[in-house]
Amino acid sequence: MHIAVLAAVLLLCIKLQAQLPEVTASDKKTPIRLEKLSVAVQVLGVRSTTTLKMSFHNPSNRVLEGTFALPLPAGATVTRYALDINGHMREAVPVEKAKAVEVFESIERRRIDPGLLEKTEGNIFRTRIFPLPAGGERSIIIAYEQNLTISEGRQLRYTLPLNSKEVIPNFSVSFDVLTQRARPVVVSTPTDKLQFAVSNGRQCAHESDKMLVLKKDLIVELTMASGGEESVVQEKNGAYYFVAHSFLPASSRPKPMPKTLAVVWDASLSGLYRDVKKEAALLQAYCKKLGDARIQLYLLNNRFQSAGVFEIANGNCKSLMTVLDSIPYDGGTDYEALKETGADETLFFSDGISTLSPAGAHRYRNNWYSISSGNKIDGPALEKLARDNGGLHLHISATTIEHAIDQLTTQPLVFLGIRQNSAVAETYPTAGMPVQQGFAIAGVLNEPRAAITLQFGYGKEVTIRKTIELEADEYADVDWRVDKLFAQYKIAALESDYVRNKEEIASLGKQYGIVTRNTSLLVLEDVMDYVRNGIEPPQELKAEYKRLMRQRNDAVNRDKNEGLENAVQYADALWAWYQTPFPRKQPPVKATPAIADSATVSTLSQSPPAPARDEEIQTQEIELETTRRRSMTGSVNT
User: Fold this and answer.
1) Which among 191, 79, 73, 188 has a CA at the least distance from the CA of 144?
2) DSSP-assigned beta bridge partners for residue 306
3) CA distances for 531 relative to 96, 199, 502, 547, angstroms
4) Is the dihedral of CA 150, 152, 154, 156 positive or negative?
């Protein structure tokens, strides 16, 4: 869609109330509205895919650029993005993030249609849409995957927040359960008309309405399989990918309270963006639980340094709070500067963003708990540090101090790995993951059938073992790629040390079309834009792309061959010139004494020069001629 006239371009901020977008122009005068919303949900085992198709209407007489933000819960991953190009939905392709931004901005300056979806801080996904035509509509599709939760009644629960009180002119929802199970229970639905029925061996439901006021969320519960274990196995290129789930209620036991406590406080400049007051309030509440203890305070920014020792009596930590209140936040964060604290337990208050070194792997003799607040955090890095050292990561922005204290004073049930099994090639997540309303694992088998034993416990002590039988082909024909799901689990594990693993993360993201920190999804309008930038296009353009790339490569090869031929011709001409004999001027003959036989001398001086020859022969001839002349001169004088 080319824009032939100069248009004012405004920036749209598409904010999310829950997961429903609200569109407003930056001048707050343009009533951009969500014209159509189509929701499609598919469930396989304990995993759901939610596909949102949204059409936005621009009633103004100006062309707008749109920015759409989609915050997703931890563990959810965007796996699809599409943008309408000339009335047809064009699928996005994965591209390295920096290159995607460069291509998007270069094409945007030509005032045609690119679309870009990228992951920003936290688990927020953002897309830029240009243009939103004056008086027209643009549509986008975004799909994401996440695990179902488990309700108090041990039912698998799907939830999509839609209660926004917004009027949607055109609304529809479809819900498909791909595996055989009892009829799902509709707990809540915006239209109150969603009903399930069996179709082609699946439990399916569909509803639609017009001018609907969204007053309710979409909540559906599904019966869990007998025994609480769910699994799916699919073969792909000789490997057997699986995802499995085991129901285990969240469990904990009292934790021995430390007598000595280390507090590592991130004093880098990014601390200005943390909720340090809430963090200090949590520490103060924990001191009250400790009663009497010795606390060693350390500060971390460009370096790791001690900031004092505090004796806590009857939970009184006023002197510690005074020091924390006076900390100046400055400099970067260097995780490599972290050291053993020597205390029974360490609390690490940080956003997890190490600006001066990779987060890396840190293993210490005592338990470490990482505590964060605010919106800009590196959650995977903080989770890894805590899990590797027998603790937990607590993000306290969305929880209460009381709940955080419960987590600090108890030991949660955690995953401690699988029992050794030669049939298993690899699995994710790694050991140390807390169990919250069940546990999901993905992996690769060397064989089509295997039994894996999951191990759980407290600290490093195994107290529970669960065996799950895995067998391929049961769901081999469903429209779902388990290998792509496995890639999502692997990326989540690799994210815990992003700097070291970023190349592998980018490779997996590009291979499976998954948005990561270093991989974006890009839509281009013209196939030539894919050719110019060397980007593999979506399936619909591949034939034309390959044809144009062959032409381009043929032209490049032709130019190379012509260049080589020209170079050979030039070299041949140069060699021929080098070997061509050319006349050589003789040096002038010096004047000689008077000679009696002047006629002879005159005859000699007027004789034609010798033909040009090889340089050595010419030199010899000159020497012979000189000798001859001298002998003649001697004869005359005599």
Assistant:
1) 79
2) 298
3) 16, 43, 26, 10
4) negative
- Tell me which residue of 522, 523, 524, 495 sits closest to 508, measured CA to CA: 495
Report the alpha-carbon distance of residue 353 to residue 382 in Å, rounded. Answer: 9
SS3 of 106, please?
A: helix
User: Among candidates 162, 163, 194, which has minimal Cα distance to 177?
Assistant: 194
**Which stretches of the chain score pLDDT less than 50?**
1-18, 26-27, 598-605, 607, 610, 612-613, 633-638
pLDDT of residue 459: 77
End-to-end CA distance of the chain: 107
16 with 70: CB under 8 angstroms? yes
Q: What share of the chain is helix, strand, coil (3-state, %, to 5)?
A: 30, 35, 35
Distance in angstroms (rounded) separating the CA atoms of residues 210 and 195:
18
Q: Which two tokens stand for residue 220?
A: 């559906």
Put simply, whether the predicted model's pTM sits higher than 0.90 gets the answer no
Can you give the pLDDT at residue 557?
78
Q: Quick one: angle between helices 276-290 and 318-325, nearest 10?
A: 160
Residue 526's DSSP bridge partners are none
Task: Give every CB contact of residue 117 below 8 A, 6+ residues apart in sequence.
Answer: 78, 81, 92, 125, 126, 127, 142, 515, 520, 521, 522
Helix axes 598-605, 615-637, angle to 10 degrees: 170
Q: What is the three-state SS of 595-625?
A: CCCHHHHHHHHCCCCCCCCCHHHHHHHHHHH
Q: Cis ω on the peptide bond leading into residue 328 (within 30° of 0)?
A: no
Long-range contact pairs involving 9-13 (C-beta distance under 8 Å, separation at least 24): 9/62, 9/63, 9/64, 9/65, 9/130, 9/131, 10/62, 10/64, 10/65, 11/64, 11/65, 11/67, 12/64, 12/65, 12/66, 12/67, 12/132, 13/67, 13/69
CA 67 distance to own-chain centroid: 19
Q: What is the pLDDT of residues 561-596, one digit of tens each?
A: 778 888 888 888 888 887 788 777 777 776 655 555
CB 301 within 8 A of CB 336: no
Query: Around Cβ 562, how many Cβ atoms within 10 Å?
Result: 10
Q: Estimate the crossing angle of helix 401-408 against helix 276-290, to 10 degrees.
A: 50
Which of 122, 112, 139 lies closest to 34, judged by CA? 139
What residues have CB less than 8 Å from 361, skipping those under 6 apart?
384, 388, 497
3-state secondary structure of 544: helix
Q: Is 302 exposed, middle or buried (0-12, 13-18, 19+ CB in 10 A)?
A: middle
For 550, phi and psi rounded to 5 degrees? -65, -45
CA 342 – CA 65 distance, rounded (Å): 55
Burial of 635 (0-12, 13-18, 19+ CB in 10 A): exposed
Phi, psi of 150 (to 5 degrees): -120, 125
Q: Are the CB atoms for 250 and 264 separated by under 8 Å?
A: no
Residues 6+ apart with CB under 8 A from 559: none
Q: Which pair of structure tokens corresponds to residue 252?
A: 């904990």
In this structure, the chain runs to a length of 638
DSSP classification of residue 86: T
Rounded distance between C-alpha atoms, residue 136 and residue 32, angstroms: 11
C-alpha to C-alpha distance for 277 and 349, rounded to whole angstroms: 12
Q: Report residue 447 as tokens.
A: 């064989």
